[in-house]
Amino acid sequence: MKEATIQTLHPDPDKTNKKISLEKYELIKKEILAILSDGQPTHTELMEMLYQNVKDTFNGGVQWYGETVKLDLEARGVIDRIKTKPEKYRLVP
Q: For helices 43-54 and 62-75, what crossing angle results, to 10°?
């Protein structure tokens, strides 16, 4: 049986994001939302925390999937970037 996929979105409407495994999407999304529920990390901090949380159980490139899902969550208005130096991420209030 064919694996379920999701067409992810990109915050830039002129760009098309990737179609990825729905199961991997949901796992990475859950982890990103859990990380952001505890603070406002920079991009580097977010990706490092994500990697540490799933590296032992995730099959695939954690950073690649993390970036793809992060962009999708931004495009859907679930998370946003805080325009600081360096930029930080947070859940949309």
A: 120
> Does this model's pTM top 0.85?
yes
Say if CB 83 and CB 46 are below 8 A apart.
no
Nearest-angstrom CA–CA distance, 70 and 17: 11
Question: What is 19-91's CATH number?
Answer: 1.10.10.10
Phi/psi of residue 90, each to 5°?
A: -150, 160
Query: What is the spatial distance between Cα 75 and Cα 64, in angstroms, rounded to a whole number?
Result: 17
* pLDDT value of position 2: 83
Q: 47: which 2 tokens?
A: 């990706």
Amino acid type, 80: D
